[in-house]
Design goal:
The chain is mainly alpha-helical and 938 residues long. Helix content is 64%, strand content 4%. Among the domains are: 170 residues, no CATH class; 187 residues, 3-Layer(aba) Sandwich (Rossmann fold); 81 residues, no CATH class; 54 residues; 113 residues. Strands 2-1-7-3-6-5-4 form a 7-stranded mixed β-sheet, sandwiched between helices. The longest helix has 25 residues.
Length: 938
């Protein structure tokens, strides 16, 4: 019998989860699993009747799926320890009949997508370990299907059969499906660009657009200035409200909470950058081959790209042939066309998609791209609102630059929510569009009035009126620095004097944007993106300054209930709740939104506002209670539970509601939240303690038991039953999560009790779960550092624990707590040299460098100096890369030398040697980049 585990690389590659999850299947139950997996697709390929072929394809597909799951967990910043927790849930998951059928459906002939909705739903229904909130099932489904299609194409058994079965149909349909193949007519392409972008589109901003019908973009365009952005932190450029920061964090558009010191450094670095004309930057093709142009809404990002395309389109055709051909791809349109099946990549988009400016033959585009005779511009990365799809587009752009390295590429995006690292890794440089300066504003005003007025006296009077308003009013001048707002001022100024008050200017601008919006919608325009911020500000201004106006409340109700922009709906809800507390219609609107709106973010906002602003309303509690019990969104239920517990503690039904949710709700997250709120808000209630004890001992879900244990330890530490319950859970609970929680609480709350230390020592030495051993080791090192048995226990764990993460933890605790002990240095060196796991060697090297870099030599005889030791590890560590995310001990040692010994006479030659000769391509690339940095400072 074949060893399928070894045959398909699962014994040595594919990530931890692939080995642990698929390994037992490959050894024991492969035949039965294969039958279920290929139940539907077997009829599509005669080659699938062979059992060996089935098994090979199955293991390849499962390996791909589990690897995608593991990758997605790591993208969510889970540690390897946390990823390992998903081993058992994944085993259970892939053995589910529905999951087998869905994964097998990717092999069905002509499959376009797999059922990711059921993939996600089944994980929840099985009550498995919760996945990170940002987990992207749709992305996994798309990538899995692509990999299965590759597996099919590479199969010698299947590919000829597919081709044979379909060759006749292909021949018959070729003519019908090909249609008219587009040519490569550059003159027609120039005309299409001029038609699409030549006229400034102001119809949606002014009902009488006749004055602007012939306003050409190239006549009114003002080149802006830019600053280069080396360390992008949007907060360094804008003062973001704290609630906006939080929203960006929750939606995955901000990596981590803001460090104020890092923020100040980023601000200083940003404002030290020289200001340059954006056109000068674009002309510098050597330094800025790949460029990301960032900017605020309305700052002119799209207009810049359109101007560049128009400059080419306005040249004579002979000259145009000798210039780079501009390919302007609006990413919002591209992703819509891709989702509808019109295209699969950028070239197909230009070749055949309805959203393309002009159809150009993709084969000839390919030739031009290979020759470097193109300027490719991707407009509006931020307009790909689905974060998973946005990541896909970034991957497509990176792949595009790899395939066509001679081509210049420009990408535009709003700065807020943009993550720079992936494009920075692809060698893109970033610049930020600056506000218009006074001279640029003046030039725009002069050009505007020269081009849009025929009456000389009227032109001069209104030009001077607008310029005076900007010169004399600081708030108006600040708004005029934004090109879109400046254009709106110019439109308003045509028929009336510009408002002197900023809020009134917002109000009048909002009329342009809110009431004249739908008259002439341009499907290719960028208005939706540009107006979002000003619409939100206009709503706040109207609600604040026009609260008593009879039209304000109906306007807020309409926007809160039905506007297409989610952020604006949320803003309107908050203004409605906070400004109209005593109005009966306001409560009714919020109640209706909380109960039945289709968007969970809207329902959550309404719930929060009801709890904060209408606490004493007789119907508010019932609305929150209903949401806590039955809303379809778990996060919203959690919000409602917290609002009930914290705002209605004295309500006669509050405790009973929380008790019922804690004991019998089907969702673990709801039960845990209710338990936490009961323990924290109802500690003195006579039924709370008994409920917590029962949950800790006998709840069927380990996460609920762990939560109850934690609340008992923190809130009922002095109760005579608590210590015994924690000890029992630490020793005998069948789930390691519960034992780990009990161990932590015992160490923190009962450190001096005579039974705690022996229990921790026993757990650190012999518990079967590696995570629990880690927890016990950490608690011993932190709470019992001076005890005579702690150091020997840590040393033994470093030398002989079977799990690499336990050894890593013990090394870290030794280095931090026992640096001066005579045996620590030697033991870390031994681990750095000889441990079989590369992650352990990396940790030992890093701890040695951090703790001993300032010691010229270790006093023990025959020990090399640390620099020499690091050199030895760089040259002789046996690491071989298996996964792209693996850490290389040689690179860790090289980083340590660069950090602590940058001026050593051997550092440059060592870098050069690794850049030229290291077997790991990732390390070679790292060394090459560091060499460039050294050269720039020398």
């Amino acid at each position: 019998m074949l060893d399928w585990l070894a045959l398909w690389g699962l014994s040595s590659a594919g990530g931890y989860l692939a080995k642990e999850v698929i390994g037992p299947l490959a050894k024991d139950a492969l035949e039965d699993y294969t039958k279920d997996f290929f139940k539907e697709s077997i009829k599509d390929y005669t080659g699938l009747s062979d059992q060996d072929t089935q098994k090979k394809l199955l293991l390849k597909a499962l390996k791909a799926f589990v690897a995608l799951m593991e990758k997605e967990l790591k993208v969510a910043d889970l540690s390897k320890q946390e990823v390992k927790q998903y081993t058992k849930p994944l085993k259970q998951y892939i053995n589910n009949q529905s999951i087998k059928a869905i994964l097998g459906s990717a092999f069905n002939y002509g499959c376009k997508e797999i059922d990711t909705e059921t993939l996600a739903k089944t994980w929840v229904e099985l009550k498995l370990l919760p996945l990170p909130e940002e987990f992207r099932w749709k992305y996994i489904g798309r990538q899995y299907l692509k990999q299965v299609q590759t597996i099919i194409k590479q199969s010698d058994k299947l590919r000829p059969i597919r081709n044979f079965e379909n060759i006749e149909a292909i021949a018959k349909n070729t003519e019908a499906t090909a249609g008219i193949i587009p040519d490569f007519d550059l003159r027609e392409y120039q005309e299409a660009i001029l038609e699409r972008y030549g006229n400034v589109k102001l119809d949606s901003l002014d009902t009488d657009g006749s004055a602007y019908n012939q306003l050409k973009l190239w006549n009114i365009f003002i080149p802006q200035n830019v600053r280069e952005v080396h360390d992008l932190m949007p907060e360094a450029i804008h003062e973001l409200p704290k609630d906006y920061d939080q929203k960006l964090l929750e939606t995955g558009q901000l990596e981590q909470e803001i460090d104020q010191q890092e923020l100040e450094k980023a601000k200083k670095l940003y404002y030290q950058q020289p200001i340059k004309s954006v056109l000068d930057v674009i002309k510098d093709s050597q330094r800025y081959r790949y460029l990301v142009v960032l900017g605020d809404p309305g700052s002119g990002k799209s207009t810049l790209l359109q101007y560049l395309a128009l400059e080419w389109a306005r040249t004579d055709i002979t000259t145009a042939f000798s210039l780079p051909i501009p390919l302007l791809i609006e990413l919002r349109t591209y992703i819509r066309n891709r989702d509808s099946g019109q295209c699969n990549n950028f070239l197909e988009f230009c070749h055949q998609s309805s959203g393309s400016i002009c159809h150009l033959n993709q084969h000839q585009i390919h030739d031009q791209l290979k020759a470097g005779n193109a300027l490719v511009m991707f407009d509006g990365l931020d307009e790909v609102f689905d974060l998973g799809k946005r990541e896909d587009v970034i991957t497509d752009i990176h792949r595009f630059t790899n395939k066509y390295p001679k081509v210049r590429v420009i990408v535009t995006s709003r700065v807020i929510g943009y993550k720079p690292q992936r494009l920075r890794d692809a060698e893109f440089r970033h610049v930020m569009l600056q506000d218009l300066e006074s001279e640029q504003i003046q030039t725009f005003i002069e050009h505007w009035h020269d081009l849009t007025f025929t009456d000389q006296a009227d032109k001069v009077r209104k030009r001077e009126r607008l310029q005076k308003a900007i010169d004399t009013s600081s708030p108006i001048r600040q708004l005029a620095q934004n090109p879109l707002l400046l254009t709106m001022m110019a439109i308003l100024n045509r028929n009336q004097e510009l408002p002197r008050d900023r809020s009134e200017l917002y109000n009048q601008s909002s009329r342009l944007l809110l009431h004249q919006w739908d008259y002439d919608y341009d499907p290719y325009g960028n208005e939706a993106k540009l107006v979002r911020d000003i619409r939100i500000k206009a709503v706040v201004a109207v609600a604040t300054h026009w609260q008593d106006h009879p039209d304000t409340l109906p306007l807020l109700q309409e926007l809160a209930g039905s506007d297409t922009d989610l952020d604006l709906r949320v803003t309107a809800i908050k203004q409605l709740a906070q400004g109209y507390k005593d109005h009966p219609d306001a409560f009714a609107t919020l109640q209706e939104l909380a109960r039945s709106d289709t968007d969970s973010w809207v329902r959550r906002t309404a719930i929060e506002q009801l709890a904060q602003c209408y606490k004493d309303h007789p119907d508010a509690f019932a609305t929150l209670q209903q949401s806590a019990r039955s809303d379809t969104d778990l996060d919203l239920r959690v919000t409602a539970i917290k609002q009930l517990a914290q705002g209605y503690k004295d309500h006669p039904d509050a405790f009973a509601t929380l008790q019922q949710l804690a004991c019998s709700d089907i969702y673990v997250l709801v039960r845990r939240t209710a338990i936490e709120q009961l323990a924290q808000g109802y500690q003195d209630h006579p039924d709370t303690l008994a409920l917590l004890q029962q949950s800790a001992r006998s709840n069927t879900d380990s996460r609920v038991r762990a939560t109850a244990i934690e609340q008992l330890a923190q809130g009922y530490q002095d109760h005579p039953d608590t210590l015994a319950l924690l000890q029992q859970s630490a020793r005998s609970d069948p789930d390691s999560r519960v034992r780990r929680t009990a161990i932590e609480q015992l160490a923190q709350c009962y450190q001096d009790h005579r039974d705690t230390l022996p229990l921790l020592q026993q757990s650190a030495r012999s518990d079967t779960n590696w995570e629990l051993r880690i927890t016990a080791i950490e608690q011993l090192a932190q709470g019992y550092q001076d005890h005579r048995d702690t150091l020997p226990l840590l040393q033994a764990s470093v030398r002989s624990d079977t799990d690499s993460w336990v050894r890593i933890t013990a090394i870290e605790q030794l280095a931090q707590g026992y640096q001066d002990h005579r045996d620590t240095f030697a033991l870390l060196q031994q681990s750095a040299r000889f441990d079989t796991d590369s992650d352990v060697r990396v940790t030992a090297i890093e701890q040695l460098a951090q703790g001993w870099h300032d010691r010229v030599a270790w006093p023990t005889a025959n020990q090399p100096w640390l620099f020499e030791f690091l050199c030895d590890r760089i040259l002789h560590d046996p690491f071989e890369r298996k996964e792209r995310w693996d850490d290389n001990p040689r690179q860790a040692a090289l980083k340590a030398i660069l950090e602590y010994y940058p001026n050593h006479f051997q550092t440059r030659s060592l870098l050069q040697d690794r850049a030229d000769h290291d077997s790991d391509p990732k390390l070679r690339k790292f060394a090459q980049k560091e060499l460039v940095k050294l050269s720039s400072f020398s």
